[in-house]
Amino acid sequence: MKVTEHKRFESVYWVELDDGTRKLATVNLARGCQVYGERLVEVQGVEYRLWDPYRSKLAAAILKNIKEVPIGPGKRVLYLGAASGTTASHAADLVGQGGCVYCVEISSRPLRDLLVVCAKRPNMAPILADARHPCTYCALVEKVDVIYQDVAQPDQTDILLANVNAFLEEGGHAILALKARSIDVTKEPREIFRDEMEKLEKEMEIIDAKILDPYEKDHAMLVLRK
Ligand SMILES: C[S@@+](CC[C@H](N)C(=O)[O-])C[C@H]1O[C@@H](n2cnc3c(N)ncnc32)[C@H](O)[C@@H]1O
Fold it and tell me: 130 in helix, strand or coil?
């Protein structure tokens, strides 16, 4: 097995398996612990978690060649729609011990699993809250460098902008997973992405947008700057 760092993104790795296939990976901050059944591999004393693009839209966006991944060592990240921590745990690996991932989740069922993940990772903080109301968690969250959002709601753009106004540093980044079917099932996904991007452009700079097919159907990933 061979490991190389991704050419553009710090803390993102390629693991070349013995059969010659290449997989994305992050260094496991909680040695020996899996979050979603992902494969763990050890190379030269370092444990890596293979990062599944069919389970994590951020991995899918990297494989689709997104221009920037602003989540890196030492960054403070507000993660909206953390579910049971699949992608949030990889974000925690990326920011490392010097960074922090605040994980907001509205539903208590996935939050139960998220609590277990956070208990093993001191740089992850679970928050049971509705991301539509940033004031309900503003006492728990500081200003952040990055907001990552994946809530699959009809008003996902408005939810992002409310949190950008409340928590994002000037010059900070947002990563938005847009799910077309959550916004309007009757419209063409590309039409929906265009409309949402027009809304976002009034408040932020759009750095890149990628359609996530074939990893996620009818999804786009956007990277934005405040
Ligand atoms: C597609 S899943 C997220 C998957 C996760 N981001 C990952 O890659 O591991 C969407 C999650 O957003 C949560 N969610 C939906 N609306 C929300 C809201 N208003 N505030 C916070 N979380 C919300 C859902 O309960 C669900 O767990």
Answer: coil
Residues contacting ligand 1 via CB (< 6 Å) = 56-57, 80-81, 83, 86-87, 104-107, 110, 130-132, 150-153
Give residue-wise pLDDT tens across range 213-224: 999 999 999 999
Kindly give the number of the ligand 1 atom that is closest to the alpha carbon of 179: 1
Number of folded domains in the chain? 2
Q: What is the position in ligand 1's atom list of the atom closest to the CA of 110?
A: 27
- Give the residue from 144, 135, 216 showing the smallest Cα distance to 175: 144
- As a whole number of angstroms, the distance between CA 78 and CA 80 comes to 6
Going from the Cα of 149 to the center of ligand 1, the distance in angstroms, rounded, reads 8
Mark whether 113 and 203 lie in a shared domain: yes
Give the model confidence (pLDDT) of 33-65 as tens digits: 999 999 999 999 999 999 999 999 999 999 999
Show the domain range for 22. 2-51
